[in-house]
Design brief:
Blueprint lengths: L8 H7 L1 H14 L5 H15 L3 E5 L2 H11 L7 E5 L5 H8 L3 E5 L21 E4 L11 H11 L2 E5 L7 E2 L9 E2 L6 E5 L13 E5 L2 H11 L3 E3 L2 E2 L10 H11 L2 H19 L5 E2 L14 E5 L5 H10 L27 H9 E4 L7 H12 L3
């Protein structure tokens, strides 16, 4: 059995290296490395796949969040609702623009934004909410859209970990739409470890609003529609053609990648669900799950460090997402003086197992056997 990896981008590359190498060489020989037809074609492919009216690529997922907030023309001091249990980019972009993050606790089972807490945190300064579709499944966008409409809030969907997942937008199964395409603006990341990953950094924004799309394009390209003609203050955030050509190819495989991740998750579920000192991931009823991560919760009686060392001693890597909630981080604890108990508890008990599309059944069997032999 080969060495087990937390994320195996190399094996995936080797499987498709012939096609990928050809595409990369074509771009290099074209001499067009920034913008150009390759990037435009990728945006069109994304638009068709996600059924999104507008898709604008950019340099990375963090930039995408910043650009999304900038596009809404919010004012310094405006409040933005964010979950505390997520990657730092979500709140980082808010603070970077002089906005105020209002931290929300999360659901103890799905780790997603706790809908029941949203209205309690809304004030006359609240202008937007950023639901994070964490670990590969979607927040309840039906409820969030209803609250946003009631309080006149913008919705920026953080779909950096959920590309390819769908969620309900009303009570009908026919209403299911891709994560990132439901709010006013959606963002995603193409970081190499993502379900759809490139060989560097990359990101994209989705919107069904043509006016917002025009502003987003300006913001991502120095505020210019025509070269050397700057209509607004913008930034330099562009996806390069090398990444775009790789992503164009890998987009054709995304359904297969996600299906394989789902199969791995079922395999984990079948082998771990009867262990009484851990809890397998719970699925949101209004969403499917593409398992960017497979995260289990250990019982409070289990020493996580000891468990993680047990895995590592047997050649099994693991990760902790996230060991400290954002409201407890030094950079952001000035914005909140209350406890958010669910996130604080999760951060002490959560651990993520290897999860990627190249994970083989015998590897999952081995991981589960080692876990079963612990304690």
């Amino acid at each position: 059995m080969k060495k087990i990896k937390m994320v195996d981008v190399v094996t995936q590359y080797k499987k498709y290296s012939s096609e990928i190498n050809k595409r990369i060489l074509d771009v290099i020989e074209s001499g067009c490395y920034i913008q150009g037809s390759v990037v435009k074609n990728f945006e069109k492919l994304l638009s068709n796949y996600f059924k999104s009216t507008n898709v604008i690529s950019c340099a990375n997922g963090t930039d995408a969040l910043c650009i999304a907030l900038m596009a809404l023309d919010l004012k310094r001091g405006d409040e933005v609702l964010v979950p505390t249990f997520t990657f730092v980019s979500t709140v980082e972009s808010v603070c970077f623009l002089g906005l105020k993050p209002i931290f929300l606790d999360v659901d103890p089972d799905t780790f997603l934004l706790n809908n029941q807490l949203i209205e309690k945190k809304i004030s006359n300064k609240t202008k937007a909410i950023i639901p994070v579709h964490l670990f590969g499944q979607c927040c309840d966008m039906r409820y969030i859209k209803k609250i946003a409409k009631k309080h006149d809030l913008f919705i920026i969907e953080d779909a950096a970990q959920s590309i390819g997942s769908k969620c309900l937008t009303n009570s009908s199964k026919l209403s299911m739409k891709f994560s990132g395409t439901i709010g006013d603006i959606g963002i995603t990341s193409f970081y190499p470890s993502k379900n759809l990953g490139c060989f560097g950094d990359g990101g994209a924004l989705f919107t069904q609003n043509n006016s917002l799309a025009k502003r987003i394009r300006l913001l991502a390209n120095h505020g210019q529609k025509l070269k050397y003609t700057h209509d607004i203050v913008g930034m330099n955030s562009r996806l390069d053609a090398l990444q775009a050509t790789v992503l164009s190819f890998k987009l054709t495989l995304l359904d297969d990648f996600n299906k394989r991740r789902q199969q791995v998750a079922v395999h984990y579920d079948d082998n771990l669900s009867d262990i009484n000192w851990l809890k397998i991931p719970q699925k949101q009823l209004t969403s499917d799950h593409v398992y960017h991560q497979y995260s289990i919760l250990l019982s409070p009686s289990i020493e996580r460090n000891k468990f993680q060392k047990h895995l590592l001693n047997n050649g099994i890597p693991s990760m902790i997402y996230y060991p400290t909630p954002l409201h407890k981080q030094k950079a952001y604890n000035c914005y909140v003086n209350e406890s958010l108990p669910v996130a604080e508890k999760l951060s002490k008990q959560i651990i993520s197992l290897p999860m990627h599309s190249e994970l083989e059944s015998k590897e999952v069997d081995f991981i589960c056997k080692i876990i079963q032999n612990f304690n």
